[in-house]
Amino acid sequence: MDGNFNDNDLDKVVSADKAHVWHHLTQHKPFETSDPRVIIEGKDMRVWDQNGKEYIDSVSGGVWTVNVGYGRESIAKAVHDQLMKLCYFAQSAGSIPGSLFAEKLISKMPGMSRVYYTNSGSEANEKVFKLVRQISHKKYDGKKYKILFRDRDYHGGTLATMSAGGQDERVMQYGPLAPGFVRVPHCMEYRKHELGLEHLSGAEFGRAAADLIEDVILKEGPETVGLLCLEPVTAGGGVITPPEGYWERVQEICKKYDILLHIDEVVCGVGRTGTKWFGYQHYDIKPDFVTMAKGVASGYAAIACMVATEEVFDLFKDNPDDKLNHFRDISTFGGCTAGPAAALENMRIIEDEGLLENCTAMGDRMKANLDALMEKHGVIGDVRGKGLFLGAELVKDRDTKEPVAEKDVMAVVADCGAQGVIIGAANRSIPDRNNVLCFSPALIATADDIDAITDAVDRALTKVFG
């Protein structure tokens, strides 16, 4: 760790944090008698806290964000140079990095056409919801306004995106939620018995799981449903990869009932799933909207994007004489130029260093390591994921699939942390289903990094479960 701060300086930092910072997703009562962790520095896949303790970061900044690793001087320089030239102008006008990154991004997304810059993944998703409601008024007399979302999927922390949230513990105490949002069942084959589909497997299960969406549409009335919003791979809800046949059937259903399809790539986007730039591209999905945030600039600057087809875009310029016809929306910090400047350099690094391919290779290695741990530890009931986006579900009994207690999952996380390895877990999200360890190392991960992470998990599982 760099020696720029002496102990007294760090003591002041920790004191200031403890006295004034309100941390995300954190109960602060324990900080009355202990200090919060303050991360001081990062390099490649490692970070250091205020005590000088080194950690391997297997969750890319804690929330699947730092895809190209810490300490990228070329991204910092790109941001610096752009800020000195122009830091900001409202997105009602264009900018050099905004224009160039939009062109670069669309070149990676055949079938998509327009990029709308916004402040966060939550807000990008909210833009889609607003567009769908406006389309409902423009084309369907306001009747086709309902938005379908999937059990276990997560789309953000604003009131509307929470209303489209399939993780009940995330929305408890925040109601009443916004009307017009309707849940559809999850598609997790490991827990197909929860759907009454335990007699099916493979593509038969996948199509049947998608048919459950059609059942909801018919119950609600197809003439009232405007959008289906799904993650390509469910993230915080348990790292759930879609079963074979699922996405083909989902698209058939959307086409049949004239329902727009929104793919939330806030977690999966920009290389996380390996080989392809976006998760949806593994499944031949042709969306109307794609949203993204976390990995777009690897956390070096704030940026989120809502991407739409030209067909959607054209709906908002078909009558220029109508002063209400265009998309009447603004995101203040969508006009910051640092985000697209960082995103351009982030994408160049991924291309030039072959990180999509490395993500696939290292993801295969991590999957194999976790599969080996499943052979060794009966508490692992399932291992799943794609690329460097993986989950291990912990159960008390493999036959009944009864989840282990959330406190035991967090004990594994804590023990890995004590070993100097930061891992993630589904927690405080789904009642009685917060039992999945989550892994999303940076795309730069080496074989040694992957082995160190899974070795720590091995030791932690032995300590916690025997």
Automatic annotation (TrEMBL):
Keywords from the named record: Aminotransferase, Pyridoxal phosphate, Transferase
Pfam families (alphabetical): Aminotran_3 (PF00202)
SUPFAM superfamilies on file: PLP-dependent transferases
Needed cofactors: pyridoxal 5'-phosphate
A GO MF label: transaminase activity
Alphabetized Gene3D superfamilies for the sequence: Aspartate Aminotransferase, domain 1, Type I PLP-dependent aspartate aminotransferase-like (Major domain)
Family recorded in the similarity comment: Belongs to the class-III pyridoxal-phosphate-dependent aminotransferase family.
Protein name, as recorded: Aminotransferase class III-fold pyridoxal phosphate-dependent enzyme
Source organism per UniProt: Shimia litoralis
